[in-house]
């Protein structure tokens, strides 16, 4: 997601559908090219809301980098929220 300008952020809330992510990272970037990991989730076992908090960082772009799916399907991700 492009936040439109650099913002100071501290957490991200993902709202997973049935095809949730079991293992994934939250990554941020200032330019949309170089990415750094600010939070990791490993071993998630169900759909629903998941909030990952991290040290305050400044970024314009935020993404979820999937590593392992929780089901045999793709990813079903509903609104993603970014918080300052």
Automatic annotation (TrEMBL):
<dbReference type="Pfam" id="PF22633">
    <property type="entry name" value="F5_F8_type_C_2"/>
</dbReference>
<dbReference type="InterPro" id="IPR008979">
    <property type="entry name" value="Galactose-bd-like_sf"/>
</dbReference>
<dbReference type="InterPro" id="IPR000421">
    <property type="entry name" value="FA58C"/>
</dbReference>
<feature type="domain" description="F5/8 type C">
    <location>
        <begin position="1"/>
        <end position="84"/>
    </location>
</feature>
<protein>
    <recommendedName>
        <fullName>F5/8 type C domain-containing protein</fullName>
    </recommendedName>
</protein>
């Amino acid at each position: 997601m492009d936040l439109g300008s650099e913002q100071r952020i501290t957490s991200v809330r993902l709202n997973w559908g049935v095809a949730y992510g079991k293992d994934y990272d939250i990554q941020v970037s200032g330019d949309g090219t170089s990415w750094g990991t600010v939070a990791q989730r490993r071993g998630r076992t169900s759909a629903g809301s998941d909030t990952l908090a991290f040290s305050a960082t400044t970024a314009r772009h935020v993404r979820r980098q999937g590593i392992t799916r929780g089901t045999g399907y793709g990813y079903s991700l509903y609104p993603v929220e970014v918080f300052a």
